[in-house]
Amino acid sequence: xxxxxxxxxxxxxxxxxxxxxxxxxxxxxxxxxxxxxxxxxxxxxxxxxxxxxxxxxxxxxxxxxxxxxxxxxxxxxxxxxxxxxxxxxxxxxxxxxxxxxxxxxxxxxxxxxxxxxxxxxxxxxxxxxxxxxxxxxxxxxxxxxxxxxxxxxxxxxxxxxxxxxxxxxxxxxxxxxxxxxxxxxxxxxxxxxxxxxxxxxxxxxxxxxxxxxxxxxxxxxxxxxxxxxxxxxxxxxxxxxxxxxxxxxxxxxxxxxxxxxxxxxxxxxxxxxxxxxxxxxxxxxxxxxxxxxxxxxxxxxxxxxxxxxxxxxxxxxxxxxxxxxxxxxxxxxxxxxxxxxxxxxxxxxxxxxxxxxxxxxxxxxxxxxxxxxxxxxxxxxxxxxxxxxxxxxxxxxxxxxxxxxxxxxxxxxxxxxxxxxxxxxxxxxxxxxxxxxxxxxxxxxxxxxxxxxxxxxxxxxxxxxxxxxxxxxxxxxxxxxxxxxxxxxxx
Length: 491
Hints:
This protein is mostly helical. It is 75% helix and 0% strand. Residues 1-23 have low confidence and may be disordered. The chain has 20 helices and no strands. It has helices spanning 2-20, 34-45, 47-53, 55-59, 65-89, 96-104, 106-143, 150-164, 169-197, 218-227, 245-275, 280-286, 288-299, 302-336, 355-375, 379-412, 418-441, 443-446, 451-478, 481-485. The protein has a single domain (30-485), classed as Amino acid/polyamine transporter I (Up-down Bundle).
């Protein structure tokens, strides 16, 4: 009875506050179609950066990388079944924040939102640091070693991204579409040439043989394959800015997953052929960073390597812009709910963008980069630590959301087919949960640093979740109307 009275009081206070508050429209505005949304979220994954710098690391765990990507594609599709069903059943923005709150309760929902801020925050820092290093490497390929510090380029890129995020998301979508198209074309050219050429040993079906997955390193291979699918889940955060969100978001989510899975499978096969099937694993283990550059120089020449180096810069720019937009929308949702300052929830009257949230996010990222500069830590060490935490945080978010989907449909009863509400979500939860377990027991492979640093960084992910839970419980105990809003319950 007391809980009912308390909830009634909360609802009454919320209604009173909403009635007394100024009539403000916090809904973002946009008119993106399916392809606009697909390109916007795919830009976050930086496909060229993945092919150039990460696929060789996957290959170091075995030549079954192509078939592993296809298997992980199926797992991500299982996740998407429940995820996209939630977009229909819970027609509110907020993505992970909203869905976790709806399935696992407001405290864990707020914890999930804080984890999302941390995860995407580390992601954008990693992208900016890598971009700074990449600019100097690009200059060195033409004019010798650059004497400009990496952070000068990083700050320059951040300032441009910061400014662009102020405007309508469709402006960003157009830029991201062009940049993504260029990097995808470059990779397709590489794939086609290598597959037809066959490399030093010719074409082989061995990388597609499922038996080559049966190795002691299978768990690690799947771990790093799942991690490269980051980005597709961001479709839901743009709910207010797309046409027909009930259909656009599911279509864009499935298209993004299929594209990433097929694209990475074919590209990893081409990279394996470039070194030769019998030598690919050893080559990747010896020097993973050199595998793709060596292939470009051997089969395409110096100029092609320079072109790819230039496209790598645009890829990092596109990823940074996409991440800035995603973070701005999570910040906007938390501001609408009153968890963050309500002033940040303002929507630009002309552009329909979360412009104040975008300004705040850019300011925090700027401060973070400045702090990192004063630590005088090597750029690649900073990049490795940031990308490792982002990688782990995303796995936790995927797992929490998988469980939330199951809990939501179990509590609400069957609103769709058993496949959508039980079977596919169970497969996703078990699969993603297993990957989280592998990541937790092999965390030193994600973060190359002293163990004290590793566990200090890892603790940030769990502390962020715990902090969100504590804040929510304090709001509940105080009877604050903000508690009732958690999860974008009221716009």
